[in-house]
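Re: that chain you flagged

S.,

Sorry for the slow reply, it's been a week of failed gels. I finally had a moment to sit down with the sequence you sent. For the record, here it is as I used it:
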Amino acid sequence: MVQLILNDLLVPGVPLVEKIIRTVIVYAALIIGLRLAGKRELAQLNPFDLVVLLTISNTVQNAIIGNDNSVLGGLVGVATLLFLNYLVVRFIYANNKIETLVEGKEDTLIDGGKVQDKELKREMITRSELEIAAHKQGIGSLNEVEKAVLEPEGGISFIIRQPDLSESRHSELLTRLDQVSQELASLRSAIGPQLPPM
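Prediction finished late last night. Pasting the structure tokens below so you have them in one place:
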């Protein structure tokens, strides 16, 4: 009985070299597939994308482990994935050209306050999804955004529009007028009916 349990736990059903090769192939296929699918898949902007990402792990499980249910086989698969990822990240970190090739470059979704519909369409992001991403970062409206960038890892960065000089002067004048009105109102109430109403 103990022999049978140990056999199931420690004797892989697939040769270890095959398991390593399977893991490398699946890892490379996932990197290429996610790169071709676009940054949207990484950003998880809607429930459909999340479902796809969650089911990918279950879909590739058998491709990595084959007919092996042993603990040792699973550990070899995990170790191979972690080691491969470590090598790839180290290699990419040392080489900017490879990083751009693997991760892609950023895409400008809003430029100069204008939504770039062509980029949204290419990345399959709707205006409402862009608005939701802005709301999550505390931005009330896309009209407040000067620039929005879809980063290579899938996040969206927003740069708030700075008011121009005439807008800021207008706002400052309105603030000062409000202060003067409040001071006049407090003077009227302090002096009483002696001041004529304005």
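What I noticed first: The chain has nine helices and four strands.

Talk soon,
D.
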